[in-house]
Amino acid sequence: MHSEPADFSPYLIHNGVLREAGAEVVSLGDGALARGQGAFETIAAYHGRPFLAAAHLGRLRRAADALDLDCPPEADLIAAIETLLTVNQVAALARARVRLTLTAPAAGGSSWFLEAGLPPDYPDKSRVITIPFARNERSALAGLKTINYGENVVAMRLAREAGADEALFGNTRDELCEGTWSNVFIYRNGTWLTPPLTSGCLPGVTRALLLELFEELGLPVKEREIPLITLPGAEAAILTSSLREIQPVAAIDGRALPVSSDLPLLRRAFAARVASETGALAT
Question: Is the pLDDT of residue 179 over 60?
Answer without folding.
Answer: yes
